[in-house]
């Protein structure tokens, strides 16, 4: 080696070369004159082994037919997934359904045996009216003294289930004007709710950004950005599960006399995922105290929980290695800036709030050793200290 002295350079951009691949001209504020250097470049581990990025990998494998080649087997897989769900639900629920039917028929037969003077047709007509009223949220039981279905608290709860698309279906408009108003109200309310949730998520991304930067400052010298972002995602997911699933489930289990913890956990999950089956409704048990206030508090919980769920999904989908939806795009990577952003090839930022720490593998940091030629002596005017020779190439 001609000269044992090395200058250590961290390169973040493109390096201009001259004469050969090993020579380059350095332009720097520290070195105002041109210096021809011999470059020995160390490739970092993350440069040799970048993390898996679905969009880039599938684009190389299938080319322009990528979206079609992947969408067809995915549709086949999705159909199989639906069939698997049908088989499992049938195996789990069909025995209980059959047993319930047998018990209802036996109870009906016992009633007719005890009261032979009642005609079976009259009993059937009565049962149909009771079932119809129950489906509309009206109980025919003498011991049930719950409040009206369309009090202010109940109506506010119903409005929230409409505009958030949860739609439990336990209480529905019965009049024709009510049904028409419900359609118009949903048509206006759903977009307004999406705007509100997006605005709230944008505010929540500010502390999420601060958390990610803190993790990067604490762990950036030990782990690659993808690993740090996974840790960040796990913190967000854990916060959502604890404070919007487990804790509310425990509260509902203590307030609802007929719910155990599993029932409450099931209700929280079904509601916040906007499935809204309507089999469990808080505040509908007989003699429920402060029912209107209970409904209003539940409405606030649903909106808050949906907001944090959107935050969690935003953080999740902004990690390009986890966002598998990009592989089915019919557009080329360089034709859609958003796809380039999600693939990690564009500038930093989460979709709404602009979180930093995008994984750049087209501008990866590398370590470059530079040694001068034999005929390249320092300038007499160069008074730069040795420690200042750690420079960035421009």
From TrEMBL:
Gene3D superfamilies: 1.10.287.70. Belongs to the two pore domain potassium channel (TC 1.A.1.8) family. It comes from the Eukaryota. It is a multi-pass membrane protein. Residues 148-204, 241-318 form the Potassium channel domain. It is found in: Membrane. Keywords: Ion channel, Ion transport, Membrane, Transmembrane, Transmembrane helix, Transport. This is Potassium channel subfamily K member 6-like isoform X2. The lineage of its organism: Eukaryota, Metazoa, Ecdysozoa, Arthropoda, Hexapoda. The chain crosses the membrane at residues 70-92, 150-168, 180-198, 230-252, 264-281, 293-317. One of its GO terms (molecular function) is outward rectifier potassium channel activity. GO terms for cellular component: plasma membrane. GO terms for biological process: stabilization of membrane potential. Its main location: membrane. Residues 370-394 are annotated as: Disordered. The keyword Transmembrane helix applies. InterPro entries: 2pore_dom_K_chnl, 2pore_dom_K_chnl_TWIK, 2pore_dom_K_chnl_TWIK1, K_chnl_dom. SUPFAM superfamilies: Voltage-gated potassium channels. It comes from Papilio xuthus.
């Amino acid at each position: 080696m001609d000269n044992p002295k090395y200058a250590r350079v961290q390169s973040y951009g493109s390096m201009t070369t001259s004469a050969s691949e090993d020579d380059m001209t350095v332009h720097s504020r520290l070195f105002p004159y041109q210096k021809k250097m011999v470059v020995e470049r160390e490739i970092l581990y993350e440069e040799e082994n970048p993390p898996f990025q679905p969009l880039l990998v599938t684009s190389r494998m299938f080319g322009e037919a990528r979206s079609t080649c992947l969408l067809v087997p995915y549709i086949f897989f999705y159909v199989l997934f639906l069939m698997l769900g049908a088989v499992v639900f049938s195996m789990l629920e069909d025995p209980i359904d059959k047993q319930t039917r047998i018990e209802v028929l036996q109870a009906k037969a016992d009633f007719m045996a005890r009261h032979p003077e009642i005609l079976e047709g009259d009993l059937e007509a009565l049962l149909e009216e009771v079932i119809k009223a129950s489906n509309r949220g009206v109980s025919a039981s003498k011991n049930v003294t719950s409040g009206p279905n369309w009090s202010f608290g109940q109506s506010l709860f119903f409005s929230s289930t409409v505009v958030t698309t949860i739609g439990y279906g336990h209480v529905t408009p019965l009049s024709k004007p009510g049904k028409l108003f419900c359609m118009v109200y949903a048509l206006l309310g759903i977009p307004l709710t999406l705007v509100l949730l997006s605005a709230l998520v944008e505010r929540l991304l500010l502390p999420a950004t601060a958390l990610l930067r803190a993790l990067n400052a604490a762990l950036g010298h030990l782990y690659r950005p993808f690993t740090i972002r996974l840790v960040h995602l796990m913190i967000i997911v854990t916060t959502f599960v604890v404070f919007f699933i487990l804790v509310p489930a425990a509260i509902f289990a203590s307030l609802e006399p007929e719910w155990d913890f599993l029932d409450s956990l099931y209700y929280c999950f079904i509601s916040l995922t906007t499935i809204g089956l309507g089999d469990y409704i808080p505040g509908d048990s007989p003699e429920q105290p402060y029912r209107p206030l209970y409904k209003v508090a539940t409405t606030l919980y649903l909106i808050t929980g949906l907001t944090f769920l959107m935050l969690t999904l935003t953080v999740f989908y902004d990690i390009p290695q986890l966002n598998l939806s990009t592989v089915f795009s019919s557009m080329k990577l360089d034709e859609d800036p958003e796809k380039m952003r999600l693939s990690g090839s564009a500038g930093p930022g989460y979709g709404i709030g602009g979180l930093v720490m995008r994984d750049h593998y087209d501008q990866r940091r590398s370590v470059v050793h530079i040694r001068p030629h034999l005929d390249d002596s320092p300038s007499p005017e160069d008074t730069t200290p040795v420690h200042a020779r750690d420079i960035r190439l421009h």
